[in-house]
Amino acid sequence: MDVTPTHRPSLALLAALLMGLPGPARGEDDRPADRLPGAVEVLGVDGRPMTLEAPEGGVLAIAFLWTPCPNSNQYSPTLNAIAGEFGTDRVRFVGLFVDADLTDAEVAAHAEEYALGFPIGRSGAVRLARELGVGTVPSAVVVDDAGRIRYRGRIDDQFFDLGRRRQVVRSHDLKDAIAALLGGEEVRAPRTEAIGCTLPDFGPGG
């Protein structure tokens, strides 16, 4: 598993890396898909195929998460708040865990521990993340009802490094992207830089 940071880590982060923890990462693939790939099937933790399409006139919001990543776990309250604010009529909100080395039951238990209040998937998540050019977790992707990627990047700007956050969130990127699209507007910043852990490498099968 490649946990090489994409910027020079502090001594504390270097120590964490030596202990086998996921390292910090910044940036994404330079050639991501501009539409949601239809060939990738993602299964929920119940083993059933997930519906990865936006409601008519609405959006699909995907949060890519990873159980050992501290930034990913600490975003749980924020993600719950965003999912709850918009409801389900026009927004389909899902969390996809890139833990190909865990079972569905283990991921479901983790989601329950962090009280995630939206549908969760695992199988196929790594492959979909690669297709969408997601190189860092946590990351968010927003898709319109035509299957077009309208936003890709950070959830907000509360983190400036691995496990290090600002006291005040200044930019609510995911929330603002969803609100803009529901209001018939363009997303002001359709691509932002996610700060977190490098997408784990589980081989070609993901």
Automatic annotation (TrEMBL):
Keyword terms: Signal
Cell inner membrane keyword on record: no
UniProt signal peptide: 1-27
GO molecular function: oxidoreductase activity
Keyword Signal: yes
InterPro entries to which the protein is assigned, alphabetical: PRX-like1, Redoxin, Thioredoxin-like_sf, Thioredoxin_domain
SUPFAM superfamilies in the cross-refs: Thioredoxin-like
Residues covered by the Thioredoxin domain: 30-183
Annotated protein name in UniProt: Thiol-disulfide oxidoreductase ResA
Gene source species: Tautonia plasticadhaerens
